[in-house]
Write a structure and sequence with these properties.
- The chain has two domains: about 200 residues, Rossmann fold (3-Layer(aba) Sandwich); about 35 residues, no CATH class.
- Helices cover about 50% and strands about 15% of the residues.
- The protein contains nine helices and seven strands; from the N terminus they run βαβαβαβααβαβαααβ.
- β5, α6 and β6 form a beta-alpha-beta unit.
- The mean pLDDT is about 95.
Length: about 260
C-alpha cells in the first residue's frame, strides 16, 4: 500500500529510542523528512545515521515552556512546512501512590501532557496550512487504572482527552488528531522491568517475560515497529476519515469498551 507520505515533514518527539525511534524509522522509510527530537544528542545522532532520509536532529527538553515552539520553528526553517506531529515523548514513574512525591507527578505531566499540548499549539498554524495531522502516543493505562501506575494513568487519560478536544477543533480547521494506546511494548523500559522481575523470582528473563505476559492475559509483548505502522497509517490519506480516534494496540490487553 502506498501511504502517500513521500516528501512530507514530520516531527517525532522522544525519537532517541524505543517507540519513537521505530516511528522515525518507519516514516523515513516512507520517504518523509523527519525531525528527531529528544534530550540525548548522541542517541539522536545514532538514530539519524541509520535513516534512509536525512533528518533534522533537534536536541531539546520539551518540559521547558519555550522548547516546543523552537522545535516547530527549526522544522519549518529546515524543510519549509510541517505535515505531521507525533507526540511520543514522556515516561512516568511507577510505584506506590502513597510514596510518590509531588515532583514525580509534576515531571510526569510537564513532558507528556504539557509538552505535547505546547507542541500542538505551536504547530497548529503549520498543520492547518498543510492539512496535516497529529498522532498522540498515550497508553492503555489511560483507559484502565492500576495501583502501581497512578501518574502514568492520569497523564495518559489527560492526553486522550486533549486528543478528543483538539480533534473537535480540527474538524473546523482541517487538522486530523488521533491517538494510539500502546500496550506492553518490548522497549528498553519493559526489558528493565522484566530483568527486575527475574531477579525477584530468581528465574531467567525469558521466564519472567512469559510470567508477565500471562499476568496481562496477552499472548506476547508488542514490537515498537507495530506501533510505528499504525502511526504511518494514521498520517496517511488512507486514514482521512479517522478523527479523534483512540486505537488500542495492545494485543487484547484492554478488555473494556
Amino acid at each position: 500500500m502506498d501511504l502517500q507520505l513521500h516528501g512530507k515533514v514530520a516531527i517525532v518527539t522522544g525519537a532517541s529510542r524505543g517507540i519513537g525511534k521505530a516511528i522515525a524509522q518507519m516514516l523515513a522509510g516512507e520517504g518523509m523528512h523527519v525531525v528527531l527530537a529528544a534530550r540525548s544528542a548522541q542517541a539522536l545522532e545514532d538514530v539519524a545515521a541509520a535513516l534512509p532520509t536525512t533528518p533534522l536532529v533537534h536536541v531539546a527538553d520539551l518540559r521547558l515552556p519555550d522548547a516546543p515552539a523552537a522545535l516547530v520553528e527549526a522544522a519549518v526553517s529546515r524543510f519549509g512546512q510541517l505535515d505531521l506531529v507525533v507526540n511520543n515523548a514522556g515516561a512516568t514513574r511507577r510505584g506506590d501512590f502513597l510514596a510518590l512525591p509531588d515532583d514525580a507527578w509534576a515531571d510526569g505531566f510537564s513532558l507528556k501532557l504539557f509538552g505535547a499540548m505546547r507542541l500542538c499549539r505551536a504547530a497548529w498554524p503549520q498543520l492547518v496550512a498543510a492539512g496535516g495531522s497529529i498522532v498522540n502516543i498515550a497508553g492503555v493505562g489511560g483507559r484502565t487504572g492500576s495501583a502501581e501506575f497512578t501518574i502514568g494513568g492520569a497523564v495518559n487519560a489527560a492526553l486522550l482527552n486533549l486528543t478528543k478536544a483538539l480533534a473537535d477543533r480540527g474538524v473546523r480547521d482541517g487538522v486530523r488528531v488521533n491517538a494510539i494506546n500502546p500496550g506492553s511494548i518490548a522497549t528498553e523500559r519493559l526489558q528493565t522491568r522484566i530483568r527486575t522481575l527475574a531477579g525477584q523470582r530468581g528465574v531467567e528473563p525469558a521466564a519472567a517475560s512469559a510470567e508477565m505476559a500471562r499476568a496481562l492475559k496477552v499472548a506476547r509483548f508488542g514490537d515498537p515497529a507495530e506501533i510505528a505502522s499504525v502511526v504511518a497509517f494514521l498520517a496517511s490519506p488512507h486514514a482521512a476519515y479517522l478523527q479523534g480516534a483512540v486505537i488500542d494496540v495492545d494485543g487484547g490487553q484492554t478488555r473494556t469498551l
